[in-house]
Design a protein that fits this description.
Function: Catalyzes the formation of N(4)-acetylcytidine (ac(4)C) at the wobble position of tRNA(Met), by using acetyl-CoA as an acetyl donor and ATP (or GTP).
Number of helices: 29
Protein name: tRNA(Met) cytidine acetyltransferase TmcA
CATH class of the largest domain: Alpha Beta
Structural class: alpha/beta
Helix content: 40-55%
Largest sheet: 8 strands, mixed
CATH superfamily of the largest domain: Gcn5-related N-acetyltransferase (GNAT)
Enzyme class: transferase
Strand content: 15-25%
GO molecular function: 18S rRNA cytidine N-acetyltransferase activity; ATP binding; mRNA N-acetyltransferase activity; tRNA binding; tRNA cytidine N4-acetyltransferase activity
CATH topology of the largest domain: Aminopeptidase
Strand order of the largest sheet: 1-8-7-2-6-5-3-4
CATH architecture of the largest domain: 3-Layer(aba) Sandwich
Radius of gyration: 30 Å
Oligomer: single chain
Number of strands: 22
Number of domains: 4
Pfam family, one: TmcA_N
Length: about 750
Amino acid sequence: MTELGDDPDVEALAAARRAEALATNQRRLLVLAGDRDAGIDAAFDAVRGADVPDDEVTFVTAREGFRFHRVEPKRASSLLGTTRTLVVLDAHEDFSANALGRVAGAVDGGGLLVLLTPPLDEWPARRDSFDERLAVPPFSVADVTGRFRGRLVSTLRDHPGVALVDLDSGTVERDGAYRQGISFDAAPPRIPREKNRRFPRRAYENCLTADQSAALEALEALADPGNAIVVEADRGRGKSSAAGLAAGSLAAEGADVVVTAPGKRNAAEVFARAERLLSELGALRGGGADDFDLAAESGGRVRYVPPTEAGAAAADADALVVDEAAALPVRLLESFLAAPAVAFCTTVRGYEGAGRGFAVRFRDRLDDADREVTDARLDDPIRYAAGDPVESWTFRALLLDARPPVDQLVADATPDTVSYRTLSPDDLLADEHLLREAFGLLVLAHYRTEPDDLARLLDAPNLTLRALTHEGRVVSVALLAREGGLDADTRRHMYDGGRIRGNMLPDVFTSQLRDEAAGVPVGYRVMRIATHHAVRSSGLGSRLLSEIRDEFAGDADYLGVGFGATPELLSFWRDNGYGTVHLSTTRNDTSGEYSALMMHPLSPAGRDLRDRHAAWFLGRVGDVLGDALSDLDADVARAALAAVDTAFSPDLSEYEWRVVVGASYGPGLYTTAPGAFRRLGLAHLTTPERASLTPREERLLVRKVLQTRPWNAVADELDFHSTAGAMRALGDAYEPLVDEYGTDAAHEERERFR
């Protein structure tokens, strides 16, 4: 520890670390811990000592009145894709793991990241607005812990390249001196020979590393239909720039290139590079009036399309570029294969997503597609040299490189070899390997995992983690959120339209479905569940859910789950005892899926809640399928209805039975009484032991009877030769339903036509 006296020489310390950063083309981290005002004053000293021009400095703080560029912490995402020489992050107010992840990536090689914190020994016990967001009802901020910040502090105190100043005591706890003895100079970019090169030479001249030029060469395959290119990289390796150079090269040739990403800001670098290249080639038309729709003199185009629309748009284009593919769900990724040629660019380790998740969840489906697949990987950093200590610190502190166990260690796991255990936050903090394995599986469980999720896992009072382990290794995990148990004032607030964090099922039941009592029972919602990819489909997920059910049977009223509805997921949860109680009437903006809510009751109160919402669901779903859910996938509708754990009676009148019998066994018409056909169709689709209909016949029931699609559209979709053929098939489909559900009078009517 170095004494700084009454006036700590932060300026000299910043100058030393800045010189070291410039000499290595790496970055350094300077932590100024103590009083906030003293920290801000010291940050000005650091800027002066680092000798950084004002226009290359950004302060990320809720405070105002700086001469430097300022960004509020909640808008730290605006720094993604930008580079700054020195960034000051004020952690005294509105601090979050997400803000730290976003800010750290914006610092350029040779630059400094300056972190202003409360006194490090006190910081974990302090509470701010982020902690208030973790305190979901019925918990208060007093129930939130400071484990995440405690872990963060421990990494600051022992990670290389971190200088730490205690402003209150006037000491340098660590000077942060760090020099690698190895040269990390990346190989220079390579320009393919002209006879082997499809893209312009200028595109390759814009590459900064050999990795980037190799990726651009692989992306030349986008010019030919039937190709798929997968570009993987850690953050800061230039994959988005390579994708932009490829898109610009194609547009210069006259190609129509669709670009998609989770949001426009994620695709900003792609368009910046494409626009620059087109300008340098003299091929940009109109000066780039729209940053996300570039026109080339050749008639080519580079345009952004949201993920939910990109598959359809790309089918009529020449190529599709998907940036940050790991942050999109598999169902959408599959829709992108409609493009003639497609590139999937994904971050392996970084704030934007988890490339390993992309590889595990989607790569096998891509390999099975009728595509020639080319792989490219970028390892050499572009904005800073390899071995950068700030990068390795953010990976460690935010678990951006968390991984499940290697396949060989868990390949023999079965439901009979595993142990069920609670993974408390203290257990996770005491065992870094356990924390990395569990969090690594959670990353794979969801297409968008953020650094804030680590803080929630360690500190949120409503969350709890359960796992199956095989010889000490985590093979399956479930993250549970406690819901309900809300007081009358909170329930009334929800009923009147107020939003309550962390209570998904009670919120939907109360605010949307008008059940003010839904917030009384206590439930546990399965937020995420994941099984190691090496032992999937071996019953481990079901074993984990069974153990959870047994554990919480005496402590909660129900278990619940909400997810983007697919036939496979609906069937999985149904097989594990969960019943459908709701389908959302709007699609998720990112996944393009409708959400399903399902429940498994554990007590009489939970059963009452499940039963009334299942009954209400059946009472409205026939109308909703003909309206807001008219475009719901037929197989999703079949699976959702099959999972409703409540009997539905068609309750047809004698007259309605005569109409149904006449349209199935005789010359009658479905259009005479469609409501009767709808109720009878619902009775069939919600009966566990169903009458014998083929999947195609059930899809016909959904599309025509429940969703009231036009006959010609139904016939085309289900591959009938004509609308008349589809009409006859519908009548045939109702014959076994008449046999199964018909009254004596209906069966007598049937005999008239035999």
